[in-house]
Amino acid sequence: MMKSYNVNYIKKGTFTLNGKGNNPLWDSAEILTDFVSAWDNEKFSKIEFKSMWDIENIYFCFTVFDNVVHIDKEDDSIISIGNSDRVELFFRTDELLNPYYCLEIDPTCRIMDFIAKPNKNFDFDWNWPKNHIMVKTKINPIDFTVEIAISIKSLKELNLMKENTIETGIFRAKYKEQQDLSLKPIWISWVNPSTEVPNFHTPSSFGVLNLIQP
User: Fold this and answer.
1) 173 vs 36, 102, 133, 189, CA distance in Å?
2) Residue 162 DSSP label
3) What is the CA 23 to chain-centroid distance, rounded?
């Protein structure tokens, strides 16, 4: 059985993204904290994930309790985002992963969005439908937050909503400086993919979001 998370309902027009994760409506959301680093024994900082929805959008909030955040500021390219600390959401139509959709977002609001097919066949020319996603972030002294709004319409058009469920992977990439000053990625996931090497791009890394009806 796949891991599941309940997405509670809020009334339309009552929530506004501010990137801070401090809107009182977030208190009505379930808090998910059971993340694992399946391929690394190093401790990682606490992550709180929340989600809620209304008839127009589904909202996500990551709060990452980390005061040492690595951001590659060379440019705004896919490579630069991929070399930075970030949070990630993957959505799939089914376990065949043909296709699935990936959002990787760093603490400065940069988005790496792409469509993927099995065996890590990525198309970075694809973007989430325009005006159907919004992201706001905030870096604080002890943590950073990432808030995301995605339209229900786009999820349905991409065939990602089925009877008020969305099959979703929830991840974090953390870059940690080593003694030789190199940076080592720590891969953190809601669902343990149970693979020998780090891999989020596999059917076993997904769980289910259950959209609770009003």
Assistant:
1) 12, 14, 21, 9
2) B
3) 19
